[in-house]
Description:
Distance between the termini: 27 Å
Radius of gyration: 29 Å
Structural class: alpha+beta
Mean pLDDT: 90
Oligomer: single chain
Number of strands: 13
Number of helices: 26
Low-confidence stretches: none
Strand content: 5-15%
Amino acid sequence: MILIIPLIAEIFIFNFRFWESLTFKKVTGYSVTREANAVTVSGMDAPVKNVLIDRPDSDEVLHLQMILSDEANTDLELSVTEIVPSVEESKYIRIYPDGNVREIKILFDVTECPDASEVNVELNSARPFSIHVFRVLLIAVLVALVLLFRPGSLLYKMPLCGENKRISDRNKIYVLLALASLICLWMLIVYAFNYDITAHYKAGHIEAIYTYQAESILNGHVWLDFTPPKYLSEMANPYDYNERLRLVKETGESFKLDFAFFNGKYYSYYGIVPTLLFYVPYVAMTGLHLNNSVPVLLMGVVFILFSFLLIYKLVRRYYPEISLGIYFLLVLVFTFGTGAFYCAQTPHVYSVAFISVVMFTVIALYNWISASDKHFEDSRLPLSKARLLAGAIAMGLAIGSRPVFGLYAFLAFPLFYSEIRDKLFFSKKGIANTICVIAPLLLIGSALLYFNKLRFGSFFDFGNTYNLSEMDLQNRHFGIRRLWLGFFEYLFQPLKIGGRFPYIESVFNYRSHSTDYMGYMFFDPVYGGYFALCPICLCVVFLRKFRKELSGMKMYWTSVAALVFAAVLLVLDIEMTGITLRYQMDFGLPVVLTAVLILILLMRKAEDSSYKNAFKTALILLIVLTGITVFNNLLIMLGDNKQWALITTNPKMYYSIKYLLLALR
Length: 665
């Protein structure tokens, strides 16, 4: 099936227009008139099925609009489309007139084609038969995934762990293959959206701010090596965006958007950890700027690795009889439910901080949960001090990447609640455990606070309110009216599906957004709320229902705390930032962690149920909702509305994907 289905699809489905065009009657006797950026085809009265448009001597994408006159319409304007020289299929445009066509006028974008004299036009041409190896391979992979994850698959009959509750050697190979596949997907997406920031670096753009911070540190100071315009220091409120724009027009001097401005100097308010880990060593060794896609790619690989480890740790402890297939599904739920794949789709400056903090938080959670492995099985056995220490260091680095994640350090209390109760912390016999958790957090936290003091004169000022953004965070007031709008947009906003490729549309974009809220609200392109993109995570509504079981797992209060912290960060994001897709990662991680715990309970309960079809029904729901979650999070990467969309960063790949999938145009 993996071999036959893709070949049949390629020959008969994706080449359907070839077979169809063989039945078209050739149109003759028409005249073609070319003037300026327009071509007019007239003098025929025939059924026109397709139009071949080609400009042989050009490698540029050519946008066009056709205007038809047929039996039912005069000057019927069709949708704007394009021809892509590197994609042969795009040159053949299938049209659907009402009866015979009398005239076709083709208008080109004047900036792309000011002179249409070199454009060739033919009617009812036979389309070429083409086999795309990549498409065949892609369909083969999709068929293989469907076969692997279908409800009757052997994956759901293969226990992940043996009788000793450890993964078998055979399953280790399968897990490594799955891990490698997901990592390859991450790397492919980062590669597709990668771009050289050299121009941004030379222009003093925010995209290079980590490199600027690294250069400043290597130069022995904490401010950035740029001189702000004089008017910023003279303004009564330099954080008033519209007033700054007015002064830019008046003086001709521009300011650095999204830089922090304090006491006459520019600073970076971004977390220092990615700078120290990646940018300082790179700048010190090469003297060059570093593309943000490099740390995004590397940290994403580590994030995926520890996601596999974390989910394995949870299922081995709470659902040891789990099948290999369900384990893979839970890993997919977790990796996509965190929202981390947004960073792969936008490997830019903002994503560096987000993938860094998500990666370190997952590492911290894995180590902290692992620390109590032996104690969980036998309360007489000690906690692993190395794991406690590693988890605390990782959590400290998470805070250093994005300080608001300091809230998640307090997850240590519910995670180790029973151990605290058993005097394994905050007691004489637990002093070593306590030091292993608290000391790294105190040391890293103290260093971060001292760095704040050097930059902004206060230990507790992280500098985000000095940001020269589109809103004034110095004077931003809490507005409860914003909350319900923010809750809806961040959590429940449905996907906006359109009729044009890529079919997913932003609810808000840079050109237009409107709500009934009569106040300032920042919007980035948003494709849907968290639960619209990750519908499987709605299972968190069963938290209260599974209180007894979660308490038995010693994870109930951890789940409650995680959701409370997620809610706090959600409110802060709404009030201090606005609506932007990347901030779903702030609350996505604790929500999906709770969702995975509940899914473990649901599947275990269904497997133990006396109801004959309970497990099969639960499995089908898990497969379908996981598939929707993965599909939604991958689909948004094709969206045209967002900043640095694929059509901008890699148009060749964008149009190749479009016409691989849209072969029936």
